[in-house]
Write a structure and sequence with these properties.
This protein is an alpha+beta fold and 230 residues long. The radius of gyration is 19 Å and the shape is elongated.
């Protein structure tokens, strides 16, 4: 069974944020972003320009007609301005759950966050959870620290969010380390949802993955096939 969603992102950043179930919900996200563009507006690849009101009317009409995977890119008529994209997408609600997610979710609410901890069982930090899950499920050893994991030879790194599937790694920078270095890692569950250990809350848990989180993504990762063949 699939679910149709609409995703909004800054054009060129990849569609890694949560999806919205209706066009109206997606436009509510897109509308304030248009204030970052100096009008008149136009769609990428077209010459006709619109006022903001006209553009929203066009989006309301065109977005439902998009085929899955198609996107509308909105830009200003002057170069050098940001562009934003709205994409129609489908997610498989019955996609197989990764063994990594199956292992980690057993400790939701049971493994408090502690920096440097390599549980569960017991306390864990973000990379402690991921390294423990990988070791228990596949007997593969990863380094402790999100940035080291992101660069590890066992991890295939990619940037296109459309490739994401259950159990993939999400590497982020929330500003605790220099730009380009991962200071946090979680497992991808489904669009808008991750599983990880966060110090700002109660440790291991399922978390909403919003637009702010999506803007912090450095890259995604997946264990290489030879490491997951048992």
């Amino acid at each position: 069974m699939t679910e149709t969603i609409y995703q909004v992102t800054k054009f060129g950043d990849g569609f890694h944020g949560p999806g919205r179930g209706t066009v109206d919900e997606a436009l509510a996200v897109l509308k304030p972003k248009l204030d970052k563009i100096m009008g008149p507006y136009q769609f990428r690849g077209a010459k006709r320009t619109f006022t903001k009101h006209q553009l929203l009317e066009q989006l309301e009409r065109r977005a439902p007609r998009l085929k899955v995977g198609e996107k509308l890119v909105v830009m200003g008529s002057d170069t050098g301005q940001p562009s934003f994209a709205l994409r129609k997408w489908e997610i498989d609600q019955e996609a197989a759950e990764s063994p990594l997610v199956t292992f980690a979710k057993k400790f939701v609410g049971k493994s408090p966050y502690r920096l440097g901890a390599t549980g569960p069982p017991g306390d864990s930090d973000c990379s402690g959870l991921t390294l423990k899950a990988v070791k228990e499920v596949y007997d593969v050893s990863l380094p402790h620290k999100a940035d080291f994991q992101m660069r590890d030879a066992h991890i295939w790194a990619f940037r296109e969010a459309s490739r994401l599937r259950s159990g993939d790694f999400v590497f982020l920078n929330y500003g605790r380390l220099p730009a380009g270095e991962a200071d946090h890692v979680e497992f991808f569950v489904k669009p808008g949802r991750t599983l990880g250990s966060r110090g700002s809350t109660d440790g291991v848990g399922f978390y909403n993955f919003g637009d702010d989180d999506a803007s912090r993504v450095l890259r995604y990762g997946r264990l290489r096939k030879q490491d997951t063949t048992q």
